[in-house]
């Protein structure tokens, strides 16, 4: 306990720039995950999840995924289960300094599910840029957005293809890594002039959207039998800045905001059950090539409560039944405002809050 109090007292003073002693403190305090230096510190400009929907009273359709597998495997990796789509599923993207994780996580899951539904025949990266620039009801572009609306745009308007920054892959490759809070105008032509298909002909569509109940088994069934990876989101605290590998469990630091990611599998490591998730902060972030593991089954940092997925129109799905919305978009929440403790480690948060109260 003395150690914890000491840690709490030191953290706020040293938090602006993680240093070796802080990393050592986290590494000696627990053994589930390892802290270390990452290529960047400014994670607050790389988040971007405002919620699945702006209306707090919104009741999404809940789907109880049907299990087509008798047994849920102990360990699962979508890249191995669908090897024909391994490079799409395993592609770590980079949103840069644009709070557009809502668009990245959604477009990644759409791409994976399109590939899986067509048995690898339609193997393209869908364009987060198309969502960020052109879906005005999806939220606030490079200042955050709603994952449910991103999927709604996929159903109503469709998404063109678009690879990573500095590639000439697809109709609208990502155009910039430094769009901090600025978004380029919507352009409904292919920005890649080498791409042969016109923008309007390059659209791919979603067929349904639904919310997955906060239930570990339901999430596993949806990934395994419901079409592939799913869109998740969670609260990002200061210690996530220095995540390198292992199973992330909140230890310390203030809330920065929320970010959306995609879940591609699960497993157990040193006794900790985890989700395997793809972040969109580039391959150099963390020590797992841009992936990370987070505790499974305990709604760690809200990880299991904002999960959505849907079906794609190609690949034998039923006739499209688009959902229409009268979108009212609320202003973005300031990163760091509103402390949501549920689901995350609690003791330290409380002592941190006490510390701040006493200090100011
Ligand atoms: C590193 O962090 C410790 C507290 O964890 C602090 O006392 C020390 O001044 C920091 N050093 C630097 C160089 O920031
Ligand atoms: C992108 O390409 C340009 C021109 O080739 C180069 O100057 C720049 O460093 C590249 N950026 C990244 C992030 O690779
Ligand atoms: C859209 O992009 C095309 C091709 O890059 C360009 O010629 C055109 O001016 C752009 N339009 C707008 C409205 O930005
Ligand atoms: C989670 O879902 C499974 C079926 O998908 C069900 O059997 C189980 O009771 C659910 N657990 C909880 C805690 O709701």
Automatic annotation (TrEMBL):
<keyword id="KW-0472">Membrane</keyword>
<keyword id="KW-0788">Thiol protease</keyword>
<keyword id="KW-0732">Signal</keyword>
<dbReference type="GO" id="GO:0005764">
    <property type="term" value="C:lysosome"/>
</dbReference>
<feature type="transmembrane region" description="Helical">
    <location>
        <begin position="338"/>
        <end position="358"/>
    </location>
</feature>
<keyword id="KW-1015">Disulfide bond</keyword>
<dbReference type="GO" id="GO:0006508">
    <property type="term" value="P:proteolysis"/>
</dbReference>
<keyword id="KW-0645">Protease</keyword>
<keyword id="KW-0865">Zymogen</keyword>
<keyword id="KW-0812">Transmembrane</keyword>
<feature type="domain" description="Peptidase C1A papain C-terminal">
    <location>
        <begin position="72"/>
        <end position="311"/>
    </location>
</feature>
<comment type="similarity">
    <text>Belongs to the peptidase C1 family.</text>
</comment>
<dbReference type="InterPro" id="IPR013128">
    <property type="entry name" value="Peptidase_C1A"/>
</dbReference>
<dbReference type="Pfam" id="PF00112">
    <property type="entry name" value="Peptidase_C1"/>
</dbReference>
<dbReference type="InterPro" id="IPR038765">
    <property type="entry name" value="Papain-like_cys_pep_sf"/>
</dbReference>
<dbReference type="GO" id="GO:0008234">
    <property type="term" value="F:cysteine-type peptidase activity"/>
</dbReference>
<keyword id="KW-0378">Hydrolase</keyword>
<dbReference type="GO" id="GO:0005615">
    <property type="term" value="C:extracellular space"/>
</dbReference>
<keyword id="KW-1133">Transmembrane helix</keyword>
<dbReference type="InterPro" id="IPR000668">
    <property type="entry name" value="Peptidase_C1A_C"/>
</dbReference>
<feature type="signal peptide">
    <location>
        <begin position="1"/>
        <end position="16"/>
    </location>
</feature>
<protein>
    <submittedName>
        <fullName>Cathepsin B</fullName>
    </submittedName>
</protein>
């Amino acid at each position: 306990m003395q150690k914890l109090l000491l840690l709490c007292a030191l953290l706020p003073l040293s938090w602006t720039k993680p240093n070796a002693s802080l990393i050592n403190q986290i590494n000696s305090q627990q053994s589930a995950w390892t802290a270390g230096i990452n290529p960047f510190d400014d994670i607050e400009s790389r988040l971007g999840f405002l919620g699945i929907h702006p209306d707090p009273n919104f009741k999404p359709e809940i789907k109880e995924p049907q299990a087509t597998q008798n047994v849920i495997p102990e360990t699962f990796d979508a890249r191995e289960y669908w090897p024909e789509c391994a490079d799409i599923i395993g592609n770590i993207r980079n949103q840069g300094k644009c709070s557009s994780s809502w668009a990245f996580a959604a477009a990644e899951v759409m791409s994976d599910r399109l590939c899986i539904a067509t048995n690898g025949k339609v193997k393209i990266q869908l364009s987060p840029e198309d969502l960020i620039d052109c879906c005005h009801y999806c939220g606030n572009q490079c200042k955050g957005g709603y994952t449910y609306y991103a999927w709604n745009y996929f159903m109503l308007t469709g998404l063109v293809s678009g690879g990573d920054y500095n590639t000439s892959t697809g109709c609208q490759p990502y155009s910039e890594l430094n769009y901090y809070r600025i978004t380029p105008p919507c352009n409904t032509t292919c920005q890649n002039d080498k791409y042969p298909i016109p923008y309007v002909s390059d659209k791919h569509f979603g067929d349904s959207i639904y919310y997955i109940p906060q239930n570990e088994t339901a999430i596993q069934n949806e990934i395994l039998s419901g079409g592939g990876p799913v869109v998740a989101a969670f609260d990002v605290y200061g210690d996530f800045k220095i995540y390198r590998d292992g199973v992330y469990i909140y230890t310390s630091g203030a809330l920065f905001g929320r970010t959306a990611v995609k879940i591609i599998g699960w497993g157990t490591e040193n006794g900790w059950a985890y989700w395997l998730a793809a972040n969109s902060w580039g391959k150099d972030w963390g020590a797992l090539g841009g992936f990370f593991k987070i505790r499974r089954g305990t709604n760690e940092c809200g990880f299991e409560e904002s999960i959505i997925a849907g079906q794609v129109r190609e690949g034998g799905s039923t006739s499209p039944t688009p959902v229409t919305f009268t979108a009212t978009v609320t202003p973005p929440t300031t990163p760091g405002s509103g402390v949501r403790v549920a689901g995350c480690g609690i003791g330290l948060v409380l002592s941190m809050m006490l510390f701040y109260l006493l200090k100011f």
